Amino acid sequence: MAAVEEKVPECSRGGAAAGKVAAPAATISGAVMEETADSPSTTAKASSKGIPIMTRAQRSHPLDPLSAAEIAVAVATVRAAGRTPEVRGSMRFVEVVLLEPEKNVVALADAYFFPPFQPSLLPRTKGGPTSIWIVELSEVHAATRGAHHRGKVISSEVVPDVQPAMDAMEYAECEATVKSFLPFIEAMKKRGIDDMELVMEDACALDAPSRRLGKPLIFCRTESDSPMENGYARPVEGIHIIVDMQNNVVTEFEDRKFVPLPPPDHLRNYTPGETRGGVDRSDVKPLIISQPEGPSFCIAGYFVEWQKWSFRIGFTPKEGLVLHSVAYVDGNRGRRPIAHRLSFVEMVVPYGDPNEPHYRKNAFDAGEDGLGKNAHSLKKGCDCLGFIKYFDAHFTNFTGGVETIENCVCLHEEDHGILWKHQDWRTGLAEVRRSRRLTVSFDGKIESEVKLTGILSLGALMPGEQRKYGTTIARSLYAPVHQHFFVARMDMAVDCKPNEAYNQVVEVNVKLESAGPNNMQNNAFYAEEKLLKSELQAMCDCDPSSARHWIVRNTRTVNRTGQPTGYKLMPGSNCLPFSLPEAKFLRRAGFLKHNLWVTSYKSDEIFPGGDFPNQNPRTHEGLATWVKKDRSLEETNIVLWYVFGITHIPRLEDWPVMPVEHSGFMLMPHGFFNCSPAVDVPPASDVDAKEAELPKDIQTELISKL
């Protein structure tokens, strides 16, 4: 496989109209960034290949992700506001995130390309009580540091009895605290482990919002000189330990039950060849993806144009990838908005084993850790093929420093099989078009695909023990059953111009016609629509038996048949939690009780478990509470919350690392266009066809072998 990454030339993009919009009070105009060798200049350069980059004058936008310099300025501003040196030194920063402007401002920005303004920043600090600070920046230069910052604290608020997300530094400190605790060292010696360097510890959150506590899951490697060994193959059970992660002290400890360590499994490792004690297959030939004229997409900062699509790429510490202002340019109908903001806002993984410690494994990967902060750099082993555009992501670390995940997001085109094909049997003529999709990885119909892979979270068994709540993987080693749930938040804007809110949602079910005069052949069925008028009416579940789906429609824009234009949410495979209503994790994950929720847009309703789900036992926060207002869904700003999941019954083939399993859904046009928007896709060129041909000698060899 081959991936292409090039330093790309720039191209100009004409026709951008200047405009002016009144900015919210928390925003000001102007953002000056330092030019570097890799950043776009104001001079356009022509090129016959490469990724087109628009000129700098049109690059910035109020939704552009924060730069490293902006994060540094925000942190320095908050730190400088501390009353004493002790307060300033004890500040811990969990996240610095863009405070996005209201959607009507963004819509006007997209419509008129007005000159950029610099939005406020929202740092969340952790040092004693949790506090939220809003910082306004005036002018940020890439070289700005320390006392040279230009920031202004707009407000600060202490939020009682909440805990922000955990940080990697806290995990490391928690592990060190446990490994230096003498009673723990003695407990490990009872299990035959003297070398604490072999011990691994992953902290889980507890339901205790007033204190920052962690309960470690403990594992142990077998070889001290093998850092690539899969230590998760030897779980340590029977030890109860609670750590105060604010002060790095053990608050509870008990060696409750002696469970022998599972013996080393010779199939536990997954690294290449000899490093895992095996041999890699040798019959895999290189796969080269070639785009000799470069890709079909064009980029201006974080703004992407591809064929007739356009959108902006964003990135936050909690959500990871965010798509803003998704629209389609439809001939003389111009730019037609589809969605204002698309992202994954939570991932929950409940386990089905009622035994300690597995019933505690109910991770909220966005709210407790941050999907964005835990993203991987694609610099050392890319998940993408072809001609790739990479985007970096910047975050604050726990002490307020700035960290960068290089090549965090990749953008590339894929051949996706046949788009459409027809052959006329009378003439023998055939028309076929190849499907090409633009994939943004952290994927434009708009298809969202989640790929699940990773290492199973295992448990240890007593000799001869079997447990029905999981699958035995090796001797004394088993993998509990569990589920993976994802929440996609889709702030829709189907055919809505700036300041318009003309969307509604209908549920569609296929009905079987009753026997009688309307169904003399007993084969009749039809689609029946139901308008979801309010939020409490819009708590829905998938139903494959009725081919259930939902359509977001514009009530004032019609297609050529006079029907409202719309986009359809088409579910994929799905499930609901396999747990009783009283399950503890459902206190803060009530949003898992239905596959679809629909709300009227409110700017501070972003995360379905509330802003602070970490260690939160409360039941009155988040999506399940918001809908109790039962706001009207007729002609309003519609937000879809689609919850989809996978029930994972582990297999032996999932060990030592699980092959990718796919899940997701699609947003498909439903009467949005007057005909197929794909009819104008040109046929494959002769060059494409020739490149696809195998050399004659290889063809002959393959035929002879077959």
TrEMBL record:
<keyword id="KW-0479">Metal-binding</keyword>
<dbReference type="InterPro" id="IPR015798">
    <property type="entry name" value="Cu_amine_oxidase_C"/>
</dbReference>
<dbReference type="GO" id="GO:0009308">
    <property type="term" value="P:amine metabolic process"/>
</dbReference>
<keyword id="KW-0186">Copper</keyword>
<dbReference type="GO" id="GO:0009753">
    <property type="term" value="P:response to jasmonic acid"/>
</dbReference>
<comment type="subunit">
    <text>Homodimer.</text>
</comment>
<dbReference type="GO" id="GO:0008131">
    <property type="term" value="F:primary methylamine oxidase activity"/>
</dbReference>
<dbReference type="InterPro" id="IPR016182">
    <property type="entry name" value="Cu_amine_oxidase_N-reg"/>
</dbReference>
<keyword id="KW-0560">Oxidoreductase</keyword>
<feature type="region of interest" description="Disordered">
    <location>
        <begin position="33"/>
        <end position="52"/>
    </location>
</feature>
<dbReference type="Pfam" id="PF01179">
    <property type="entry name" value="Cu_amine_oxid"/>
</dbReference>
<dbReference type="InterPro" id="IPR015802">
    <property type="entry name" value="Cu_amine_oxidase_N3"/>
</dbReference>
<protein>
    <recommendedName>
        <fullName>Amine oxidase</fullName>
        <ecNumber>1.4.3.-</ecNumber>
    </recommendedName>
</protein>
<dbReference type="InterPro" id="IPR036460">
    <property type="entry name" value="Cu_amine_oxidase_C_sf"/>
</dbReference>
<dbReference type="Pfam" id="PF02728">
    <property type="entry name" value="Cu_amine_oxidN3"/>
</dbReference>
<dbReference type="GO" id="GO:0048038">
    <property type="term" value="F:quinone binding"/>
</dbReference>
<dbReference type="InterPro" id="IPR000269">
    <property type="entry name" value="Cu_amine_oxidase"/>
</dbReference>
<feature type="domain" description="Copper amine oxidase catalytic">
    <location>
        <begin position="289"/>
        <end position="678"/>
    </location>
</feature>
<feature type="domain" description="Copper amine oxidase N3-terminal">
    <location>
        <begin position="164"/>
        <end position="262"/>
    </location>
</feature>
<dbReference type="GO" id="GO:0005507">
    <property type="term" value="F:copper ion binding"/>
</dbReference>
<keyword id="KW-0801">TPQ</keyword>
<keyword id="KW-1015">Disulfide bond</keyword>
<comment type="similarity">
    <text>Belongs to the copper/topaquinone oxidase family.</text>
</comment>
